[in-house]
Amino acid sequence: MHDTAHAHVGQHAAPTSFIRKHVFSLDHKVIGKQYYGLALAAVLIGMFLSWLMRLHLGWTNLAIPGLHLLTKNGAPGDVMTPEFYLQLMTMHATIMVFFVLTTAPFAAFGNYFLPIQVGAEDMPFPHFNMMSFWVTLVAFLVLMSSFFVSDGPTLGGWTQYAPLSAVGQVGGPGEGAGVVLWALSIAIFCVGQLLGSLNFITTTLDMRTRGMSLWRLPLSAWGWFITSVMGLTAFAVLMPACILLILDHVAGTSFFVPANTVINDQMQPHSGGSTLLWQHLFWFFGHPEVYIAIVPGMGIVSHVLITNMRKPMLSHRVLVYAMGALAVLSYMVYGHHMFVSGMNPVSSLVFSFPTLVITIPSTIVVLIWMGSLYGAKLRINSASLFALGFISMFIAGGVSGFFLAQPSIDIMLHATYFVVGHFHLVMGVAAMFGIFAGTYFWFPKMYGRMMNETLGKIHFWCSFVGAYAIFMPFHYLGLAGNVRRYQAFAPEYMQHLIPLHKFITIAALFTGAAQLIFVYNLFVSRYKGEPARDNPWQGTSLEWSTPTTPPPHNNFGDKLPVVYHDPFQYGVESSTGDYVMQTSPEKAGPDDEA
Amino acid sequence: MKLCLLSRRLRAVARRDTPTSNRTVSGEGNMAKFFAITIFVIAIVSAIPILRHTWWMAEDISTHGAPIDEQMSETMAEAGISFLASQFILGYFIWKFSNPKPGDKIKTFPGGAKAMVWAAFLLVGTEVLALGVFGVKAWANVYFTPPAANAVPVEVQAGQFAFYFRYPGPDGSFGPIHPDMINEANQNFYGLDTDHDADSKDDVVTAEMAVPVNREIHLIMHSKDVGHSFFVPELRVQQDFVPGMDLSVHFTATKIGRYEIVCTQLCGLGHYNMKAYLSVLSPEDFDAWMKKEKAMQ
From residue A554, how far is each of A17, A30, A161, A561, B198 by CA, in Å? Predict the structure, then answer.
């Protein structure tokens, strides 16, 4: 609903040099692809680390040929040491949570498609946008550099609980330089996310083209917008927390270490710090982060589903409100990570309440999806399979939240594999499925070529069955009291669980290998895929109205599009078939506002 | 030149969108059915080990554990039904609505979005809130009732990567801890000054924990270095150690036996191996054990 002069804020001329075009590009589409590339590199590294960990958990004394090449002291005779296991675990989680689950669904797809979906030429602050990617890349390199410092990366887990993370080298291998590099990397990452969120919010609020009211935004755009608001507030808390942690290491402060800490019979030179302070700061970010990973996926999946169901959602607005409710509630539930942390037990009950309440908007989202499937003319393709798989995974991971929301049950399940199974399904696998659905759906627009459908379907089936085979047994392990973050299962009562661990390892190797089909498909289709039409899925939103595929530098050529409709005009009779594009002045369905 | 024009025309034709919404591909329908069947099978296979308790919580040996177990069973029933029902409906809809015949019209779910919002509030909302309200009792049993006056006091100290236990001896009080005097080589794990502190003289420090059966234990928890946790699945007790804070829990063990105490808070490279044994003994055996440990101090 803005005049065109306003919408030219982010305008910049098409670059001519290679460097400005492909490296230090200001074009949101190039930046989106750069983020995708970074996430792809990160996910392959993260997955490789999980393979090493799984092999070790199944066969603790197994020599993995060449393992010593990755570490100075962590693998004598190619057998993983306990500390190297924990270092791999910490790096796996950090890489996946920050550089894959935050980067791919939000920063990669959001960068590419949010400006196009609102009908803008670019984001309002292209230099900030470019900076956000390069800052994120630096953060990734800083994190990876910790593999090369003398005793390797930190072993404290991605949660980096103090005081272990704050006492320095004396805490164990990687707890000196490793932690400092970790905290530095995450602080830098936060800068990138804050810049990105700023751009996303401004793009959504100020850059919409004529006729594009907020309610005419597609659900994917809503997902990114809501996520960017969460990112702005969550990363703004994590960054100072990381800076305080760095100061505890390099400036002799004691933010997170109390007095009378004795390690190796030595009194540590600290006093006055609070270990619970770190947990509060971390989880104030940490729980919204779960939704930062999953809400863009919800948006992408809704968008993919609408197009492939050939009908609108039962209610566009209810889905938006439910996603908004998830975002608001996500700040009020974080204490459920701390039920048995020593926090006041009354607080546990207080945090338990919104945690239970947050199941309501989650349920609404799922029920709207399922109710919308009723009476659909569902197309089965790689994108829609992954979108439907997302729903199945989100349900499977969601119901275990009923348990973890309750402090009394948490006594039995806290810090067990039950928790690991829960978050891997709900924010790991489900979010990955969202990324895959988005990739199969938008690849034709991004690269002008179709992905191979047969390979896509094989990839789906292996991933769907494989992910269940890996992560459902995690819940059984947790019920039986199998503690997480153990490099081997020393307690006697865990011995009978080892065969289950072996099964999981085999499933993980298989499912991981199936992801290579996806990578192959991605690269081969990039160069040899069937040429894509402008609107291969008969979609309605603005990314399908670009004059060329991929879109030109300024997205829409000389003239910004004018929007006449909601983005979900499917199942109507029109000159194009069963849908009316947002840019078409043609009258659509009975409830059309045009 | 002509070739160039021709190829441009061909590309333009290829790019023109053809309405394919009425097209049905029988392979797609089969794959949707296969998807539905896969979801059914996965849902059922996932539920079997839960129903059969193939891998399940250890037997409860505490007086406060029953409400926790009950809460777990109720939650499992509700979560299990929600899981199976929604996966089945999802699979069924995928089966039913994926193979449209030409001329099929889309339909809207009767009741629309309103039905879904009501269902979410009524079914799931009341379900989880009821769980939450009933769960308060189980939690209160553990955390909101003070230990009995005659509870047996035991102190546990966590450190990388071992637990040590301390009993106050006949005087009933623990001597003060001097962190600067902690010295593992001299086996002064707690930093006790037995030369100067009268209360410390009769304190008994052990590497294993023993408690008398059917007596309430007041466990005082103290960490000397980083975060740790005290978890005995059979006892239905899990509580973190917080450096800088002394916390306590209380419990009564009801079954004689030997159990494992494990650390559940990542505390460093030896975390996986940080464990100790808990012996639940008859009163006579407990007294004998205490005497033996005292002699070894």
Answer: 17, 12, 46, 12, 83
Compute the distance between CA of residue A80 and CA of residue B82 in angstroms, rounded to an integer.
41
pLDDT band at B261 (very low <50, low <70, confident <90, very high): very high
Please identify which residue in the block is written with the tokens 């294993």.
B208
Nearest to A275 among B14, B227, B262 (CB): B227
Contact call for residues A388 and A376 (beta carbons, < 8 A): no
Q: Which of residues 37-96 of A touch B (CB under 8 A)?
A: 81-83, 86
Give pLDDT, residue A109.
98
Spacing of C-alpha A48 from chain mean position: 18
Enter the tokens of residue B85. Answer: 């029902």
**Strand, coil or helix: what is A574?**
strand
Q: Please provide residue B277's backbone torsions phi and psi, each rounded to the nearest 5 degrees.
A: -100, 145
The closest alpha carbon to A182, from A231, A241, A252, A270, belongs to: A241
Q: How far apart are the CA of B56 and the nearest CA of chain A, in angstroms?
A: 5
Read off the pLDDT band of A42 (50, 70, 90).
very high
Question: Cα A363 to the chain's mean position, in Å?
Answer: 20
Structure tokens at B17: 């969108």
How far, in Å, CA of A416 to CA of A404, rounded? 11
A189 φ, ψ (degrees, to nearest 5): -55, -40
3-state SS of A461-500?
HHHHHHHHHHHHHHHHHHHCCCECCCCCCCCHHHHHHHHH
Strands B209-212, B275-281: pairing kind:
parallel
Residues 6+ apart with CB under 8 A from B291: none
Give me the helix-helix angle, A275-309 and A316-329, nearest 10°.
Answer: 170
Report yes or no: A97 and A105 within 8 Å, Cβ to Cβ: no
Chain B: give the shortest CA distance to residue A486, in Å.
5
**Nearest residue, CB atoms, A371 vs list B46, B109, B236:** B109
Confidence of residue B297 (pLDDT cuts 50, 70, 90): confident
Nearest to A261 by CA among A279, A275, A251: A275
Best interface-test mutation with B: which of A159, A365, A380 has the largest number of B CBs within 10 A?
Answer: A380
Length of chain B: 297
* pTM of the entire predicted model: 0.94
Asked if A372's CB is within 8 angstroms of B109's CB, the reply is yes
SS (H, E, C) A404-417: HCCHHHHHHHCCEH
Rg (CA), chain A: 24
Average pLDDT over residues A505-512: 97
At A122-164, the pLDDT tens digits run: 999 999 999 999 999 999 999 999 999 988 999 999 999 999 9
Is B112 in Cβ contact with A360 (below 8 Å)?
no
CB B31 within 8 A of CB A380: yes
Instruction: Say what the pLDDT of residue A592 is.
Output: 59
Neighbours of A3 (CB within 10 A): 8
Domains of chain A: 28-260+269-579 (1.20.210.10)
Comparing CA positions, the residue from B73, B90, B139, B292 lying closest to residue B204 is B292
Beta bridge partners of A21: none
Q: Supply the pLDDT for residue A591.
A: 56
Q: Which two tokens stand for residue A316?
A: 């566009």
Pairing of strands B237-241, B228-232: antiparallel
Encoded tokens for A307: 């197009």
Residues with Cβ within 8 Å of B265's Cβ and at least 6 positions away in sequence, in order, are: A161, A415, B227, B228, B229, B240, B241
The tens digit of pLDDT for each residue in B116-133 reads 999 999 988 888 888 888
CA distance B156 to chain A (A): 15
Cα→Cα distances A295→A195, A219, A292, A349, A365, Å: 19, 10, 6, 26, 11
Q: Looking at residue A60, what is its pLDDT?
A: 93
**Residue entry with tokens 């949010």:** A114
